[in-house]
Design goal:
By secondary structure, the chain is α+β, with helices and mostly antiparallel strands. About 45% of the residues lie in helices and about 10% in strands. Strands 1-5-4-2-3 form a 5-stranded mixed beta sheet. The chain has a two-stranded antiparallel ribbon with strand order 6-7. Strands 8-9 form a two-stranded antiparallel ribbon. The longest helix is centred in the N-terminal third of the chain and has 19 residues. It starts with 5 loop residues before the first helix and ends with a helix.
């Protein structure tokens, strides 16, 4: 995908405004940076723990010292690890007893670079018996604060982002219509986009009293559409709003026609819950509960759900299963915010499945509408959208156990390791850093910086900070969200979703970003 220069222009202009303040704070980051460097020496669920294959077979980069599942060679008494910078040809090496040893002996000596790793088996006579493994990857830039600070207060940034969505013609359309404006192409995803539209408008209603009635009218009409287009009572997917439209021209992708993604109704459900909170109209709580009832009816005995099913018959497309990072918070929200405890068994079975299947394998793949699981090898499409969100869920529990905290930390480290770029190497041809940083990429199959992915990571860091008081976690959250305020259009308030044309502005991503900005405002008072 060809990149525009919008990121670079906006980032440069705003960074200059805040760099002076950041320089004054540099001394206070010495301890935090030392802590980060030390933590990067600790491998994440290393290969020598016994997973076969290792989780990092498709990894492109590493921040934490990696370990690979290279095989042993008969007659070897040790193994020589050699890491070579593919540009400067600088090398680093060490020997270990096993080919799956992690790279911590030299990891913090290796400067950020594209590198080539070679592991050779060494015999009793000290001679090389052969090569047991090779890998190319990016030894990525570590966290090194301070970063340019925020371009505006967090709450102001959040409000401006919400107002940008509110003023979109496709959103204003809902004031007088109960059908979507499909000239905004992403309305092709009803649960995701229209559900987020409802949430955005409730946020506007609650935060900006002068716009309350207008925003609630928009939210009600959008909710009416989702209700009217849901499957009827008695169907296998009763009360589930559509993931896609039946009309192929409106389905986003031809192969989506007639299908439903099983995690998507939770997004409409959260919109209904927000609207009930704002209006007190029991219609919307009832709809959210009916969605939860259908999940309860469809859950397999082992706690799982298929990824993609026929919207009419409910028959799964394949054996792929969704992860539950959306369902579990939805069910917990029913309990904590609305006092509904009818779904405890559903929630407990879902959590048990998450721990016994994806967490045990450490395979936190995504369930995206265009990558729904079939044909994928294990670990082929890891994403922070699963790992960081599930970490948040584990940490948000009352008195999380030591095991849950440890699992959450590993999930956060995985997410950072694979998807956060604290800095970026210059392009080989232009010599320009063509990605603004710090930023967070979404998934292996969409390896692009996305605002909501930075919000996912910041959410996870803030959750960890709330439980442990770890300042490094707070500073990482600030750095990522500060950068979103820098990228934010200072005139319109739009936070860039992804480096694509403006018509691909994702309302759901924007809503995720603004809610995290609000959380950070509450934590910091800024």
């Amino acid at each position: 995908m060809k990149r525009t220069n919008n990121f670079l222009v906006i980032a440069l202009a705003s960074a200059l405004m805040v760099q002076a303040c950041a320089n004054q704070e540099s001394g206070s980051f010495e301890a935090v940076n030392r802590q980060a460097a030390q933590e990067y020496l600790e491998p994440i669920r290393p290969a020598y723990e016994g997973r076969n294959p290792a989780w990092n077979g498709f990894a492109r980069k590493f921040l934490y010292a990696p370990s690979f599942d290279f095989p042993k060679m008969d007659g070897a008494v040790s193994y020589k690890f050699t890491i070579k910078d593919t540009r400067s040809e600088a090398t680093w090496s060490f020997e270990a007893d096993s080919p799956d040893a992690n790279l911590s002996p030299v990891w913090n000596d290796i400067h950020p670079a594209d590198v080539h790793l070679t592991v050779e088996a060494i015999g009793a006579d000290g001679k090389v018996l052969g090569t047991v493994g090779e890998r190319d990857f990016l030894r990525d830039f570590p966290f090194q604060g301070p970063y340019p600070g925020k371009a505006m207060p967090y709450r102001e940034s959040a409000l401006r982002a919400a107002l940008y969505t509110h003023r979109m013609p496709a959103v204003q359309n809902w004031k007088n219509q109960t059908v979507p404006d499909l000239s905004y192409c992403l309305n092709a995803y009803p649960c995701k986009i229209i559900g987020a539209t409802i949430q955005n408008e409730v946020f506007i209603a609650e935060q900006i009293p002068a716009l309350r009635e207008e925003a609630l009218q928009i939210a009600r009409n959008a909710a009416t559409f989702l209700i009217n287009s849901s499957r009827p009572e008695g169907d296998p997917l009763e009360f589930f709003p559509p993931t896609f439209y039946e009309d192929e021209a409106q389905a986003g992708r031809a192969d989506n026609k007639g299908w439903a993604m099983m995690m998507e109704p939770t997004k409409a459900g959260n919109g209904f819950l927000d609207l009930f909170r704002a209006t007190g109209d029991s219609l919307y709580l009832d709809r959210a509960l009916k969605i939860a009832n259908t999940y309860k009816k469809l859950q397999a005995e082992d706690g799982s759900f298929p990824v993609k099913v026929n919207f009419v018959t409910g028959v799964p497309m394949n054996d792929a299963k969704i992860t539950h990072e959306y369902l579990l918070p939805f069910l917990s929200r029913l309990e904590t915010e609305f006092g509904v405890y009818d779904y405890t068994d559903l929630k407990e079975k879902s959590l048990k499945w998450m721990k016994e299947v994806p967490m045990k394998a450490f395979d936190l793949e995504g369930s995206f509408e265009d990558t729904y699981g079939y044909g994928c090898a294990p670990y082929q499409n890891l994403t922070n959208c699963t790992s960081a969100r599930f970490a948040c869920y584990l940490l948000m529990q009352d008195n999380p156990s030591e095991e849950d905290i440890a699992d959450a930390i590993d999930l956060i480290r995985l997410s950072e390791d694979q998807f956060v770029h604290w800095d970026y190497l210059p392009d080989d041809v232009t010599g320009v850093r063509e990605i603004p940083t710090p930023s967070t990429f979404e998934q292996y199959f969409c390896y692009e910086p996305v605002d909501a992915s930075s919000a996912n990571m910041a959410d996870a860091y803030l959750s960890l900070y709330a439980v442990t008081g770890d300042r490094l976690a707070l500073e990482k959250a600030r750095a990522l969200m500060d950068h979103l305020t820098i990228l934010q259009n200072q005139i319109t308030g739009m936070i860039i979703s992804i480096d694509e044309p403006v018509e691909y502005f994702w309302i759901n991503c924007n809503y995720g970003s603004l809610t995290t900005l609000m959380k950070l405002a509450e934590v910091t008072g800024e």
